[in-house]
Design a protein that fits this description.
Helices cover about 60% and strands about 15% of the residues. It is elongated, with a radius of gyration of 28 Å. It is of the alpha+beta class and about 170 residues long. The chain folds into two domains: about 120 residues, Alpha-Beta Plaits (2-Layer Sandwich), CATH 3.30.70; about 45 residues. The chain contains six helices and five strands, in the order αβαβαβαββαα. Helix 4 crosses helix 5. The chain has a five-stranded antiparallel β-sheet, with helices on both faces.
């Protein structure tokens, strides 16, 4: 790879890292191209990217970002997952690592915080941002639904009383 190409790769990766919320570092030794492609597709569906990196270039790209402290994780055959939404990408990597032992999660970074492999697994167990939003909407809608029920109940009770009275008067006249 020429020096100009290396500079371009570092700049592009630096720009990606600067916008990311999470960077997860994995070792992929033994994975086939097809397996790596499958994993890339899963990560891409979740809004992230998975790329095989040259460690020296990745360490240069980390400089000046919030992920500079994770530079020590870049040893061996390294692939990194970069995303704005941390939970879903971590979940995808952890699930894939359970199915395929060749993918080893080394650790990562969450905007200034270094994560070890166990912390990445714990991150993967959290509910995703979409699930949390749905729960919040449900919590906000529940009081409104109860209020409507409470407000509707007296009117329904009055209607039942009037109906019962009308039926009673109808029977007395006959």
């Amino acid at each position: 790879m020429l020096r100009a190409e290396k500079t371009q790769v570092v700049e592009k990766l630096h720009a990606t890292l600067a916008q990311a919320e999470v960077v997860l570092v994995t070792h992929y030794k033994g994975l086939t191209v097809a397996e790596l492609g499958e994993l890339r597709g899963q990560v891409r569906k979740l809004g992230g990217t998975l790329r095989v990196t040259k460690n020296r270039l990745a360490k240069r790209a980390l400089e000046g970002t919030g992920f500079e402290p994770i530079a020590s994780l870049f040893k061996g055959p390294t692939a990194i997952a970069v995303a704005r939404e941390p939970v879903s990408v971590a979940k995808a990597l952890v699930d894939y690592a359970k199915k395929n032992e060749k993918l080893v999660i080394v650790g990562g970074g969450l905007k200034g915080t270094i994560l070890d492999a166990a912390q990445v697994r714990a991150l993967a167990e959290l509910p995703s941002l979409d699930v949390l939003r749905a729960r919040l909407v449900g919590l906000l809608q529940a009081p409104a639904a109860r209020l409507v029920g409470v407000l509707r109940a007296p009117a329904e009770q009055i209607a039942r009383v009037l109906k019962a009275r009308a039926e009673k008067e109808g029977r007395e006249e006959s």
